[in-house]
Amino acid sequence: MTKYDSDLPPKASSEVIAEREGLADEVCRELERAGLPVHRGGLEAGPHDRPGADVHVDTFEDGGVYVDWNSAKELRDAALQLFEKGIDFTNPPRVVVHHKNVHDYMQSALLGILVSAGFQVEEADRFTHGTAVLVKERQD
Question: What is the pLDDT of residues 14-30, one digit of tens each?
Fold first, then answer.
């Protein structure tokens, strides 16, 4: 019988994590060059309230470099407060729809900007990463 230390998936090697960190730095530079506010985060650091692109490295073996969009606290809180109270999903309040649309449009924008800058990207798994973009590599 094999004993596991935790239920978490295995971490990537230090070499792979270092490559991802370098790729994340390149992604930040290109998004800043495009004029977007960019924040380097980590999954361990938890959420923050700053609007803009949030670039972080997932250190698990099957992880990667993810870019997600954070809307301003005012919009995020307004939508989440209504959502927590319960909404009619067939006719959601305008602020909830707007919040969702902002994230969907920004995902499209991030995909386009990063492809234009030479990165191979795809939509991340929505169930796990919401509207985040997964950056695979930089193409030459």
Answer: 999 999 999 999 999 99
Contact residues for 45 (Cβ-Cβ < 8 A; gap 6+): none
CB atoms under 10 Å from CB of 23, counted, come to 19
Write down the domain spans for the chain.
Answer: 14-138
Q: Which residues pair with 69 in a beta bridge?
A: 53
Sign of CA dihedral 76, 44, 2, 61: positive
Q: Is the dihedral of CA 9, 15, 19, 25 positive or negative?
A: positive
Write down the pTM of the prediction: 0.85
Q: What is the DSSP string of the chain?
A: ----S-SSPPBPPHHHHHHHHHHHHHHHHHHHHTT--EEEEETTT------EEEEEE--BTT--EEEEEE--HHHHHHHHHHHHH---TTS--HHHHHHHHHHHHHHHHHHHHHHHTTEEEEEPPHHHHTT-EEEEEE--
